[in-house]
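Fold this complex.
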Amino acid sequence: MVLKKRLNYGFNGFQVPFIPRAPRSVRRRGLPKKADEDGDVCAIELLASLAGKLLQEGESSACSNASDGNHQSAFGQGVVEQESQGEAKPLLTEGVHHGSCAESTFVTEAISQNSSHKYVSQAETDGVLERTSVTNHVDCYGKTEPDIKPEICKWEDKVGHCSSRLAEAPQNFRESCNNGNIINLFKQEQEAGNSGIEGSSLAGKCSLKDPVELCVNSPAVINSDSKVKSPFCKGTFPNGSFSMYHSDSKLGFRDDDENFIRCNKISTKLKASRPPHQIAHRRIRKLLTSKYWKVAPKLKDCELSRSDVGAKPSYHKRKTCHSFERGHHDTLFKRRKFFNRGSGLSADGGFSSGSVSNSLKKGMDGENPSLSSKQHVSKDSHVKFSIKSFKIPELYIEVPETATVGSLKRRVMEAVMAILGGGVHVGVLFEGKKVRDDDRTLQQTGLSCEENIDNLGFTLEPSSFQASPSIYVGDPSAHYETSQSTRSPGTPVLDSGITNVIRDSPMLTNTGNLIESNHESISSPADTKNDNITPDSRALVAAPPRSTEPLAMVPVNQKTRRSELVQRRTRRPFSVSEVEALVKAVEELGTGRWRDVKLLAFENADHRTYVDLKDKWKTLVHTAKISPQQRRGEPVPQELLDRVLGAHAFWSQQQNVVKHQAATMKMIKEASSSDLGDGEAIIQPVVM
DNA sequence: ATTAGGG
DNA sequence: CCCTAAT
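Structure:
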């Protein structure tokens, strides 16, 4: 039936010795290879080396401050909202964690204006994340880790005295942040000594925030400031967003990777049409996972764990991560699973601060994300704060409908830990506004008056960017056009990371002088923005050797977290339509010609590589063989599975035939040459 | 760059 | 999906 009909092509090959593929020459599509890799590598190696040293130096101090806080974490109250799953799939924001943190999620649901253009934004790891990593390159996850750590350790080292004064964060919090990162997030003076605020300012001067931001460096797109209605996420992803193309069944759906619309792509050459950024992206990605990283110094356990939190769970396989042993790494390892499809969930979590016990109050208003806090001024002009809980920045996770509540809890926990681990910094909200100037005193800010207590809030923010909320809300497009902070895996900004860097650099410089501040691990963006970097603060941390500048310039530091993003691509289950297209293509082309299959049916689906198709076929065959009860995921019509089986059987046979022929020919040839000697008449194998 | 398979 | 080996 259908199979036969489709297979006509295949049978043709049957008659004539089946030629699985066109000559290489025909398929060859050379890509001019750039010769700049060496430079990159060198830089990376240098950096890695430096990182190693710094790590060793700073480790002890970085890990030492953890202390006895008798803090308890309370996740129990996570609020989970399930989003409707209509035709429009909820877009997930991966942002918050991993790279995400880095990219927070600014998912514009720009559903295109043009009917023919579907603008779907979804967290796309592969795209944004990887690309991002490219940009920044080099850091992150596993191998890249070194880039980050050094900064942290160094920071720790230099400002150790400051750290010691910092308050203890809740145990869990600390742990998740893993040494150094957030340990000194905020301070709570036990008693008389300095007021918490002073501690804060101190931190600011010591650039305590930096470490966090440096590591976390996640553009806080998702502002913890709940007041800001996040425009991102929840974009709709019409199931039919991709369309089948005529008879040849090409799927033309937009790849999340692309930040531009590519419907009806005209060019036909896969490679040729491949956007430069993609190439760069690939190159970098390769670089990231390449042997070059093996030269990187091993990271210490604590370091690794930390980075891993923010980064993607590493594979045991990764050589550089072998030492990874942190207790919670298991949890971290699961992080990649957060993004499985399912419903979008948002959860709030809270940590009890274990701070001075005082009457606890709710945050200013229900909508305020911040934490509930109570503050009072003591006789000696000290202001005490009691932080009841922190609101965790928006989280998005997905779980199958069939997931258990227990697994959901775990996911939420993991997500929370990931966020914290990824790096967080504290934001202060006063009367609904963020207080950005870290150097202002409480008095100046108006926080010394008890009357204002209720208008004070703290937030945990996954990013280092403190662009005003209005930016995110008010002018999303402009925002994402110019700010990398908004970029998220789900953001339709998919141009090359390199491009991004270039474009973003100015902004970074303007907003937070990030390049430098990060590099020096000194001031927070907020500080820099207000030009509050003091000479002193600079002095605290000696600038790293400028030799690293080439790499550090933009990449390494500020987008550090992105590299963490070098993670597994987000899972994108094949839709029935895609399966159909695949089946059809395979019926015609057979197995073993995945590149052609790709070209035939998925040329416009950039997120589907020929390997993906091959893998999918593999699973389809498997699926078709098992009982329907054992199948999972979106059910594939039996009819398609039958075709899969049919095509599989047919092409398998073909393959055998071809093999047999080849073997026969070889035997004949050998026989002829040995029996008849060379030079004799050649027996023409009569095949079929 | 592709393919084929194992993980 | 990832990773690798082999083409």
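The first strand of chain A starts at residue 73 and ends at 74.
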